[in-house]
Amino acid sequence: EMCIRDSVTLFDLDRDANVPGVLRSELTNATWVDSGAAAAASADVVLTALPRPEHVSAAFESEGGLLEGLRPGATWVEHSTTDLRNTLRVKDMVEAKGAKAVEAPLTGGMQILREGKMVTLVGAAPEVLEGEIASLLALSAPRIVRCGDFGHATIIKIFSNILCAATDAHMGEVLCVCKKAGLDMKLVFDAMRVSSGQSFCWETEVPLVLRGEYDPNFTAEMMLKDISLGLDLTERYGVPAPVTAHVAEIYKQAIGEYGGGEGSTIPVKLSEDASGVRLSEGGGSAKQSLAGWSYTTEISEGSYQILHNDMVNPYLREPYTLHADDRRGEEVAALKARVAELERELEAAVK
Predict the structure, then answer these.
(1) What are 200-247's pLDDT values in tens digits?
(2) Which of 95, 107, 101, 106 is nearest to 150 (CA)?
(3) Which of the 8 DSSP states describes residue 82?
(4) Which residues contact 313 (CB under 8 A, 6 or more apart)?
(5) How large is the C-alpha radius of gyration of the chain?
(6) This prediction's pTM
(7) Can you tell me the distance from the alpha carbon of 260 to that of 215, in angstroms, rounded to the nearest whole number?
(8) 102 strand-pairing partners
(9) How far is CA 20 from CA 17, 80, 142, 334, in A?
(10) Which residues of 21-37 are buried (b: 16+ CB within 10 A; e: fewer)?
(11) Which residue in 181, 2, 157, 154 sits closest to 85, CA to CA?
């Protein structure tokens, strides 16, 4: 296990202004410096996590930037969700300095980041990643998905966000129809999350919407940035993308109406305003029943599982449990019985 607490060097244009108060006590042994070059000059591993491609370029190429101080043999770890073409360009500059590069965009959302359960999508040569770098990544995001070559993780991360954006763009229409039809909105949320329309964004953002909130700690402006990066990729690889383009237009409309600083679920409000309803108000409202709701995640048998906190879960009580059979439990019992049978046969054969 790596111990890095006494050897961390930090640089930010706003120094520690962006460090949440709860984390400041964790940085007492860190050293703040006045330039990227100074940070890189003392580092075996350089980590960047920036909002946009132009920020990454500036961090490396501006006067006093990271490239000036980057040491031969060092490793650059890129956590930003950014432009593929620019990321590959910066990688070439890093390698020209005799350093190595690992792309490692993070996914899962701020709620999961706070719990230390983020997924790291990694693109890198195995000889660069495995060992100390993988152990370092696991300190903050232990669920490491190896995505292949450098660049592949960026593509996966961008389109993962676009799938969420498509859900956000359509979700309002679904919810507004259900609301105007007089359905219980908590029931709608529960029914959909065990149906074929279930998704991460449905499970983690609908409760917010039903409370009258639209911010899953990710802005509409940043979502539109990722959609635009996806459109760049569809053009690069010659893939028509009318759905992605339409989702981009919906986000542009929402940003025009409400501002880019609103949360990425804000397209739902477009549907509410156009339909003349408020999902968090009136008959069938779930605002009270979801008032204390939060969530966490686990990875179960290779799939993401959302675990809901402080919410009545109808699938853990009657009448649902009266008729739902646990076939998986039956399958496990049958497998255990078969293993025991084979062990007896093997024991008899040995004798």
Answers:
(1) 999 999 999 999 999 989 999 999 999 999 999 999 999 999 999 999
(2) 101
(3) -
(4) 190
(5) 24
(6) 0.86
(7) 12
(8) 77
(9) 8, 19, 21, 51
(10) eeeeeeeeebeebebbb
(11) 154
